[in-house]
Write a structure and sequence with these properties.
The complex is a heterodimer of chains A (292) and B (295). Chain A folds into two domains: 1-47, no CATH class; 58-285, MetI-like (MetI-like fold, Orthogonal Bundle). Helix content of chain A is 72%, strand content 0%. Chain A has 15 helices and no strands. Chain B has 295 residues and is mostly helical. Chain B folds into two domains: 8-69 and 238-291, no CATH class; 72-219, MetI-like (MetI-like fold, Orthogonal Bundle), CATH 1.10.3720.10. The chains are: A mainly alpha (292), B mainly alpha (295).
Chain lengths: 292, 295
Amino acid sequence: MYYLLLLPGLLYLIIFHYIPMFGIIISFKEYQPFMGVEGIFTSEWVGLKHFQKFFNSYYFWDILGNTLAISLLKFIFGFPAPIIFALLLNEVRNKKFMKTVQTISYLPHFLSWVVVSGLLVTLLSTDNGLINIIREAMGKESIMFLGDPKYFRQVLVISDIWKGIGWGSIVYLAAISGVDQEMYEAAYIDGANRWRRIWHITLPSISHIVVIMLIFSVGGLLNAGFEQIFLLYSPAVYSVADIIDTFVYREGLQSNNYSYATAVGLFKSLVSMFLLLLTNFIAKRLDQEGIW
Amino acid sequence: MYLGKPTFSEKVFNVINYTLLGLLTISFIVPFLNVIATSFVSEKELIERGFVLIPRNFDLTSYKLFLRKGSVLVDAYKVTIFRVVIGSLLNLLVTAMFAYPMAKKDLPGRNFFLTMVFITMLIGGGLIPTYMVVKSLNLINTFWALIIPSMMSVWNMLILRNFFYTIPPSLEESAFIDGATPFIVLTRIILPLSLPSLATIGLFYAVGHWNAWFDAVIYINEPEKYPVQVILRNFVLNMTAYELELEESTGLGAKPPSVTIRSTVIVISTLPILFIYPFLQKYFVKGIMVGSVKG
């Protein structure tokens, strides 16, 4: 009888996860959208043709490079940001101020990227946007931040941090709140100043959670942030912003090259899966608990 | 905890720390103030002043334009509210029904089903094969295309299962002896005991539905079926599709400038979250802590 309870969820997993996994075979075939469902079986096998086409195409290195560059930039600047934020917040003695800052900083996490892109477009507009108004008041030229390859990635990284820094700090704050307060008092009596207490007590106390978060973030290395980029980019910045996911969308649903787009998507999935298994393995090796 | 009188360097640290955190907090607020102010600005004031943080006179033209009966945004709100309510309730039902047997450690076949769940976390079909499934089920351009393809989040399922572990088995034993089916036990005993967890997970689902837009972009081609987020996206990216709607504004006074129109759409589509958020915030924080327990 328990199995009857499982039925709706099971059907969902099969129809929307396992059947699409089976549908991946079209990446080894010459499938056309007009062929319908039976075309998945009847279309001609072409082996690794679509993969070869992708690896040999001149944009392959651009797309892979953009994907890695954007996600690495987000990692380098975005990973330490919530840790530093949590450490600074923990040094605040005024509880009311602390609560207010926390509450406000979590908010952007609950906004969709659509809303954030709306805020960004308004803020960065060359026509009455706040940032460019300030630049002009300082006697500088206004900049088309979203249309200039020089600035586009900076916008991506900063807005990503802006959206996630508060929410990301929660795990670190929780770890910090578990630190035994007597250690701070003992350190104070021994003459340790504030910096020393942060450096020798707070940081080592949260290092295990930092390591866990660090390991997990490697698994998402090929996720450069589809929604954010898809909403903000334009052909003017494709050279620095086109990533695997946006390419799959354009090739697949806009140009109707289903087989080719699925092959590119499969390439990404396989690399991601490898990274995830690798990090889980490393996590277990380091005597941390794995993801499963 | 008393750690003595602050030294000079600690005072300097405090000043810098409060300043940094204060500036960061301001950076979270200013973009909202910016769009709220811009949404009230008339063409005349915008040309005169260039940039406005506090408008001199509040011009409500663009609000009248979007909040009247039959406007694209009002229609889209109906879709969104319908989606959030129906979608979250179905999500919760399916998730609870799956999580409950998974919490029975001696259920035969449990490991098989759990492995099935874990595999979906590792690899998926990807954009195109999923789209093909939705299409072959004739869900394109239907409301259900926004609900069924995201019926259950396996993360939420595991969070709920972890909570079910903490319910003592003795509570359900007598019901089973009296001949109750697992479904009866789940709905009459387990779920009433799990209301805090259900509320947290339900909120995660609800926010997900509220914020979702990409599924509507790919599965829905008929503009009258778009949810709020898609309308907002269209106004941010390219307003020309709504020229007709904007033309109708001439009856309401001077046509507002396009930045004002865009800001108004942002404000109207974000305001509910801004109002509800402070009250729900603590449930979300609790939720992430529950989720950090190993599955």
